[in-house]
């Protein structure tokens, strides 16, 4: 069963990436709420986090990382530093801004 699952993951990397981002963001929000000792889980907040992750973060990061790997191929230290620098100076501020903007406009 695992080989069949992995075959689908390799065949549909975009779907896998978007699904993982959405589930990890929503799961992370639930764990954060649980550890912050709230009386009840705020499902609206978790839903908003999941919507932002599914609609933007999974898609953006899939295509951004693909662009970086094609534009700067290789695993040498210099290439990794270039990719890391571009990621942290370009993509990270954009992704953070989208996340906080998405959280500030709650879906009713």
Poorly predicted regions are none
**Major β-sheet annotation:** none
Number of structural domains: 1
Which series of helices and strands comes N to C? HHHH
Mean pLDDT: 91
Percent helix: over 70%
User: How far from one another are the termini?
Assistant: 40 Å
Principal-axes geometry comes out as globular
Class by alpha and beta content: mainly alpha
Strand content: under 5%
Count of alpha and pi helical runs = 4
User: What is Rg?
Assistant: 17 Å
What's the total count of β strands?
Answer: 0
Main location: membrane
InterPro entries: Mpv17_PMP22
Membrane topology: Multi-pass membrane protein
Protein name: Mpv17-like protein
Tell me briefly what this model is.
The chain has about 110 residues and is mainly alpha-helical. The protein has one domain (about 1-105).
Structure description:
- The chain has 108 residues and is mostly helical.
- It has one domain.
- 83% of the residues lie in helices and 0% in strands.
- Helix 2 (13-35) packs across helix 3 and helix 3 (43-71) packs antiparallel against helix 4.
- The mean pLDDT is 91.
Name the features.
transmembrane helix, 4 helices, 108 residues, Mpv17_PMP22, membrane, globular, mainly alpha, Mpv17-like protein
Helix-strand layout with pairing:
Layout: H1 2-11, H2 13-35, H3 43-71, H4 77-104
